[in-house]
Design a protein that fits this description.
Layout lengths: L3 H9 L12 E5 L11 E7 L17 E7 L2 E7 L11 H13 L3 E10 L9 E9 L27 H13 L4 E8 L8 H10 L3 E3 L3 H9 L3 E11 L10 H10 L1 H13 L6
Parallel strand pairs: 1-4, 1-5, 5-9, 6-7, 7-8
Antiparallel strand pairs: 2-3, 3-4, 5-8, 6-9
Helix pairs in contact: 1-2, 2-5, 3-7
The chain binds hypoxanthine (HPA).
């Protein structure tokens, strides 16, 4: 159950300047993506530990800061680093960034993550626009009472990832000379990496990539009517597909190697954000 009191407290922990203007876009940046932002002007930088209900990020490679900044004459609110379901702290810290941005009035969102490649046509370092997802967990942040602003009891999830925003992401990548493909993301609870048998099962379900994040935030955002797109960096091939033993170090290292291209795409995405997407 989501404790809405937490959301009120979270909003109260934000400096007043955060609420003066509605950001044109919100970001939630995952593993290895925290160093991609270029800014013209930083307005507020706030450690997660200072936001009630969010708390410090516990995973290496996740920065754990909220940054309000201007770039290309756009105001962007970025959450750099995320809390995960597998940390066992419940849903609040996982979906709090979405709810804070919703309350700020944000209607456009970009989510990024690191993933394992299931589709054998992928290689580590490749970028995948998430076209749709499969929640393999049987858990959902919308379980519980209906929360004001998060849509109906049974939200439609036919278009979680907005086509126009995904097309903008694709154009941004093309402008930077980067190759991106589109794929289906399978969400697992973690914290273990998958077994080869699980990966074969997810491949059979149609998944191209796998990871332990994004879907909770995307589910809530889409239900709340926020347009979103998601971009994943394939950091390794999933268990049993190929490659060495899986490790978080390898995931972070591969994402770091990709920082220049990821940074260029995110920057071009901001530059090309239309007034209404
Ligand atoms: N599995 C799950 N999550 C991941 C992986 C993976 O192989 N790589 C990066 N995040």
């Amino acid at each position: 159950m989501i404790d809405t009191e937490i959301f009120k407290l979270a909003m109260q922990s934000l400096p007043g300047t955060v609420l003066e203007r509605v950001p044109e876009c919100g970001f939630i940046l995952g593993s290895g993506w925290s160093d991609v932002l270029e800014t013209d002007r930083e307005i507020v930088r706030l450690p997660y530990a200072e936001i009630a209900g969010l708390g410090a990020v516990k995973v290496r490679g996740h920065a754990g800061e909220m940054l309000l900044f201007e770039r290309h004459n756009r105001l962007i609110c970025a959450f750099m680093g995320r809390r995960h379901w597998y940390e066992g702290a419940g849903w609040e810290p996982v979906i709090l960034p979405v709810e804070i941005m919703r309350r700020m009035g944000v209607t456009t969102l970009l989510i990024t993550n690191a993933s394992g490649g299931i589709n054998p046509a992928l290689t580590p370092g490749q970028l995948v626009i998430i076209g749709d997802h499969i929640n393999t967990c049987g858990i959902n942040p919308l379980i519980g009472e209906v929360v004001d602003g998060w849509g109906a009891r049974f939200p439609d999830q036919s278009n979680v990832y907005d086509n126009k925003l995904s097309a903008l992401l694709r154009r941004a990548a093309t402008m930077c000379g980067a190759t991106v493909t589109e794929g289906i993301y399978a969400f697992t609870s973690g914290p273990v990496y998958e077994t080869p048998a699980e990966i074969r099962a997810y491949a059979g379900m149609g998944a191209d990539i796998v990871g332990m994040s994004t879907v909770p935030e995307a589910t809530v955002a889409a239900a709340a009517g926020i347009r979103l797109a998601a971009l994943s960096c394939v950091t390794n091939m999933a268990a049993g597909i190929s490659g060495p033993k899986l490790s978080h170090e390898e995931v972070i290292e591969q994402a770091r190697r990709n920082t220049p291209v990821m940074s260029a795409i995110v920057d071009s995405f901001i530059d090309n954000l239309p007034d209404t997407v």
